[in-house]
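[Q] Does anyone have a clean structure-token version of this?
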Amino acid sequence: MADRNSRLAEAVALRERGDATAAMPLLVALAADYPDDPVIQYQAGWVHDYLGLEAEAVPYYERALALGLHEPELEGLVLALGSTYRNLGRTADSLALLGRGVHDYPGNEAMRCFLALSQLSAGNPSEALALAFDVILATSQSTDIARYRRALLAYRDELRGLQTD
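[A] Here you go.
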């Protein structure tokens, strides 16, 4: 176990220092040595994704998910895999996973942004814009946004086809 931990720490440190190219073979070897370790599978997916090898990242991400990756990594995995699905044209998978992520992590505004992109890819521009409004309204410190909050909420609801008073 000490060998696993030191090898994983070395690979993650390389990736975090911006040397993902050096981290990748270490993580691929770890993933092969520990196929039932969801953290290692997630890290192997992450390094592939970071290097723009999204199609190669998916099997690692999916394996980590199937193995039951726990928090705090699970939240990052849901966002990363959902975004990767969208980038690969797997829009339905992206919508499902990111929709779950928005439900499970309501305070993660980045998750909403990626779901908005997936909604746009799915041909749902009104919902995409409504999600963007959700993020803006939840995070903006702008006095202008605060001043027009009621109107913006009404427009957001209109985009979603909801009745407003």
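[Q] Thanks! Anything notable?
[A] The mean pLDDT is 95.
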